[in-house]
Amino acid sequence: MKVLFAVLALATVALAAKKSRMHPYSAKSNQAENQYLDCYDYSGQGGANIRITDYIENLAQAGFDNMASSCCFNGVWMLYDEPNYNSRNLEAASYFGWGENYCDDFNPDIDNKASSVRFSGAPDGYKYDTINFYEGKFFMGQEQYFYDDAPQFNYDNLGRSVIVTGCSPWTIYQYDNYQGYSLCLYPADTSQCYPNFYAQPSDLGFLSDQVSSTRKGCFSKNIVYGKTMEPSIDLKSFMKVFLFLSTLAVTALASSRPPFFPQVTRSNQQENQELQCYEFPSYEGIAYRFNDYAPSLSPFDFDNVISSCCFNGAAVYSGWGEGACFTFDATFDDKASSLRFAGAPDGYKQDTINFYESKYFIGEEQYFYDDAPQFNFDNFGHDTTECYPSFYAEPTDLGFLASQVSILQHLPSEVAMISHFVCLAFMATTAFASSSKPYMYPQSRKSLQQENQYLECYAEPGNTGKHFRFLDYAPNLASYDLDNVVSSCCFNGIWILYDETDYNSNNFGAAVYNGWGEGYCTDFDATFDNLASSVRFSGAPDGYKQDTINFYEGKYFMGQEQYFYDDAPQFDADNLGQSVIVTGCSPWTIYEYDNYQGESRCLYPSDTANCYPSFYAEPSDLGLLASQVSSTRKGCFSKNIVHGKTIYPANGSSKLQHSLQFSAQAGPVVGSNLDDTKKPFSKTQEPGGGNQYLDCYDYFGQSGQSIRLTDYAPSFSQLNFDNRISSCCFSGIWILYDRDNYNPDLTSAVFNGWGEKYCVDMDSNFDNRASSARFAGAPDGYKYDTINLYTGNYFMGAEQYYYDDAGHVNYDNLGRSAIITGCSPWTVYQYDNYQGIAKCLYPADTINCYPSFVLENDLGGLQNQISSVRRGCFSTDVIHGKTISSQDDKKGRSLVTGTNKPKFHPMGLMGLGRDDTGTQGGTSQSVRCYSGPNQSGQQIEINQQNIEDLSTLNFDNLAASCCFNGVWLLYDDKTYNQGHFDSPAFSGWGEGFCTTFDTTFAGLASSVRYSGAPDGYKFDVLTLYESNYFMGKEQYFYDDVTQFDFDNFGESAIVNGCSSWTLYAEKNFQGDSICIYPGDQSNCYPGFFANPIDLGSLGNRVSSAKRGCYATEKLIPPGI
After folding, report:
1. When comparing pLDDT for 696 and 814, which is higher?
2. What is the per-residue pLDDT across 1062-1082, written as a single tens digit (0 to 9) for each?
3. Strand partners, 273
4. Which of 154, 196, 834, 992 has the greatest count of CB atoms below 10 A from its CB?
5. What angle do CA 733, 738, 743 make, to 5 degrees?
């Protein structure tokens, strides 16, 4: 067989400047010269040499691979053990040095090993202000750099290491547009403009791999200093070296706040805040003066040694004054491990208010110099006149407003100005945190609740031995001398025990035990006996039957928690909730976006009459909204209802009892009835065709085991009926989907049927494939007037439905497909309030009220553009959908998705893959082919479309030359050589690359398709093909996929974009694995794996895939 590959001509060496020079207005006074690096193949700067002035991603192309033994640095330079800056192996060695003509010999770890090199900062001066982010630690992998403010990054959540050059600090932020958690990163010396190196994720703390925007200057109280070395007088020996395994002390000398603003009056303030502490009582021994936050005293060799201090300002033991001194008593002597001040750094009398996470000013802090209309956490107020601090040390001091903070604020006072201190009468030595939640308001339903929540745990089985009654959260049971000794407990309320401290926050693979009831006692079995290290309750402290919703960072209720007693239009920690517990009698609605917008789900308690809790323990229980929840409302305002898990009390039992045990290996058995109505009943009185239901069977001819659906079923696995359906009887309008949650991938197979007790066998394309199902229209009658809009073609993905006019749809610009039910037409509009382009969508039969099915191509210019709808026809542009008339007794039909792919950035809410909005995706995919050589003769252009039969375009066996934009595959036979795998194929890619076919392929092409995303061939996409040379069936993925439609698949593959992919031999990322790479990660050129041998041991054995490299075996594509 003959297979041809054509590629765009490319430069063989990537020597292009990666960075532009600084703008003309940049100060040049501090900069001696442009950056360059002289390297030699012998120590002592001897032997062959090379001068490097720009990035070199492969030194072999410069004839200097694995040769460098010494270098002279001018600027900031990094050398890497592997090509492409260690992009394909972030565990390889790296070396960086900086200075002005600083020369050094390499040690054995890097000698003769450098394979790529690049500089950091501006090319025309390492002292210019820049910030440089790197994909891996020690400045390896992909890089993003900025000369100025950047409200959004090309690659979001990047930065496991950072280099700051120049004289200015930079502020990095968790979210776009300078929002979320922030840190200031400083150069090593702001006067001399020396660079600073944040080499490891630990240097960046919480923001490692979480940075989404940056500003030049310091706008955060949280300041982190990197690592550098002081220069000699002449900068001749100024450098810093890191190898991969280097171990460096991390010092936390963070300046926690900016000085107070200049317009604030300083008249009441004598001097900046400072604290001088001594090793011995009476201010004797070794001393240290602090003028900033010290989150750890270890770097000062002062941990647990302080016996006395002198205060200027307000500091936390707690003491304050102007020169006031104090010797600690036995309760605090030699115990201090961290310290900070309160108020402004340049004057404790400046007007500030300071909030703390826990009592006695412990934990996270928020402070304000001015009005704050919105807090990161809860809302509080302040009042100010005089200038002496006042301390609100316990929740009881704050009354109703006490939540998770104590306040240090300025209040009126008649006390004269004196030098003194205020010392708290009691300081807890262990973290016996105050109640983590406020009690419910008095008007809350208390009649159903017998008592407050508490948990009694024992060191021996049978509720014997050493024990403790817990009334509140306990993040570390060692504080109670109960760590890893608990063998039995009695539950009153809802309690969760964790294998590790801090609720398994640092290990989501650890075990969990959840129990609830009233006086329910149990012994732990061997899988959890003597494991518990932390414990907390869920719900309100004064009654587990109070209405609450509780969100958790990890599955099985692990990690960080957010809870709500009432509506919350915005969360403190956005997009939280891998697991949820609902308590009380009321359901709750969760939403994808702030202010109750976006995709929604109703979460119900397990029993609304008895107010039994419901547990959503895993992301799969929450479907599309797992880790995507941003707001919540009490009550059910969505048609999509999801039931969690619980265990009901036994009949006649006097005690409620429930326990679920979780581990990383196996979760609880899933059980769900899914029998609550998803949609309200229609308010119209005309006959609606009867309630909708669906009877399905696991054998043809409506035989075998069966199931009746009366409502949405997002996962048949919860009903033990996944991939079992062979026949169904339709009463109403029902859609069955190949995947859970109604094909969120928007590409899998669909079967749509409707009628009144219409029965049908599934054809071979859909037999034993159904994994979810839902109806369209009103639950009490498919003939009631409704319009149903879907984010995907063939009625896949998220859905919105309307019984009446809607001037604004919940999800704007929706509608790749629609179903019209009832007798009335509907008008859909481009803009809100019935404005813009309008089209009328009609039912199939307005007399008999038969439904109409409107697909993507039927909507013309309004696909994914619908913003409002009205019942009735108010447009001259009328669209009739598709249906099957009553002469066939309302037969169903199989609607398997078409050949087109969704865009990488779809306009619908069911966004596929990452929102890499800033990523350069390359040109959108198109190909223009000609019947003659050299782009002559008859021509045809194909845009973002797969054509399985070119005869439909009158171009079969005509193509003699083509021009490619993107990655395109042409085949000798129809349907991509399906069944004819010995036929020729042709692969071409590039941007405007044109070629003439030779005689072996000219005039042969009968089908054509592209690889990758339609709107950009450089977006990250993995495509696997049934046969070699990209022939036959295709499966493609924009993101991780745990299970394929076709298992053990892939004799060939194409990798689009910049990212590597990991292929696995088994489902759920199990079994043998390999990494495959694109052709060029820097330029995002595609990688072609044309034969099974190119895929190593996994040729035709792939069953799941994950974006990124997580395997030790790595394969690069053969040169094509």
Report:
1. 696
2. 999 999 899 999 999 999 988
3. none
4. 196
5. 85
